[in-house]
From TrEMBL:
<dbReference type="InterPro" id="IPR039793">
    <property type="entry name" value="UROS/Hem4"/>
</dbReference>
<dbReference type="GO" id="GO:0004852">
    <property type="term" value="F:uroporphyrinogen-III synthase activity"/>
</dbReference>
<protein>
    <submittedName>
        <fullName>Uroporphyrinogen III synthase HEM4</fullName>
    </submittedName>
</protein>
<dbReference type="InterPro" id="IPR036108">
    <property type="entry name" value="4pyrrol_syn_uPrphyn_synt_sf"/>
</dbReference>
<dbReference type="InterPro" id="IPR003754">
    <property type="entry name" value="4pyrrol_synth_uPrphyn_synth"/>
</dbReference>
<feature type="domain" description="Tetrapyrrole biosynthesis uroporphyrinogen III synthase">
    <location>
        <begin position="25"/>
        <end position="236"/>
    </location>
</feature>
<dbReference type="Pfam" id="PF02602">
    <property type="entry name" value="HEM4"/>
</dbReference>
<dbReference type="GO" id="GO:0005829">
    <property type="term" value="C:cytosol"/>
</dbReference>
<dbReference type="GO" id="GO:0006780">
    <property type="term" value="P:uroporphyrinogen III biosynthetic process"/>
</dbReference>
Length: 248
């Protein structure tokens, strides 16, 4: 089937130099952007039910920008002033730099790994194992990081500060796409919630990541494109290869 219109379940790229626009221009394809999911903070009252005192901790572990946003937003809503002595441990430098949206970066003790994965950050945490760590997490999360720290006898409080919910579509919005691209299992769930009568038929579905691919299969849908691959390490590279093969 020829691909003419694609829905990418991510926010619209901030830069016009995005590879998605290059694909659209090169192959005459219309690409729309609309996240199927959004992340929202848990209400203050719900957080209080966890009986967690943020100020009882001396260090925060951040694994994403989302976690930073919701940590500082919640602190503001709780009227908590985060002390200057608080230490921050981040999975990557990009996440660490994002902290300056809320605090003066140079005046804080901030650590980050070089690999972008928690394993690269772990040595810094072990060196500071006397700190009292807290990590903002989603309502649906695994405890992989907590398990890592338990092995080193390092205490960690998991604080649910945000959740992923379906991002509703306009009821009058035309849903006439030839291809849908998903990046998380939650996005696939949202498709079913927004369009309970959705029938795939000739609509192609592409995914990024093994868990998202499995979610498509579990939902009884046909998976047409799975990324990343050796030949196509990015979603855009995989999408271009797919469109090129179908639009001959």
């Amino acid at each position: 089937m020829k691909i003419k219109k694609v829905l990418v379940s991510q926010p619209k790229p901030a830069s016009e130099k995005s590879p998605y626009y290059d694909i659209a221009n090169k192959y005459g394809v219309k690409i729309d952007f609309h996240p199927f999911i959004k992340v929202v903070s848990v209400p203050v009252q719900e957080f209080r039910q966890q009986k967690i005192s943020i100020l009882d901790h001396t260090a925060v572990i951040f694994t994403s920008r989302h976690s930073i946003d919701h940590f500082f937003t919640l602190c503001e809503e709780l009227r908590i002033t985060v002390p200057d002595t608080m230490k921050y441990f981040c999975n990557s430098e990009a996440i660490a730099l994002y902290i300056q949206k809320y605090v003066q970066y140079r005046k804080r003790k901030i650590f980050f790994g070089t690999t972008g994965k928690f394993e690269g950050l772990l040595p810094f945490i072990i060196k500071n194992k006397k700190e009292k760590f807290i990590i903002p997490v989603s309502d649906v999360h695994n405890s992989e990081i907590k398990n890592h720290l338990d092995k080193h006898s390092i205490g960690l409080t998991e604080a649910v500060m945000y959740r992923t919910v379906s991002n509703e579509f306009d009821k009058d919005e035309a849903f006439d796409y030839d291809m849908l691209i998903f990046f998380s299992p939650s996005g696939v769930t949202s498709l079913k919630e927004n369009f309970p009568n959705f029938e795939q038929k000739n609509v192609c579905i592409g995914t990024f990541g093994s868990s998202t691919a499995q979610a498509v299969k579990d939902a009884g849908l046909r998976l047409d494109l799975e990324a990343p691959t050796v030949k196509a390490p990015s979603m855009t590279a995989a999408l271009e290869e797919f469109i090129k093969g179908n639009n001959k």
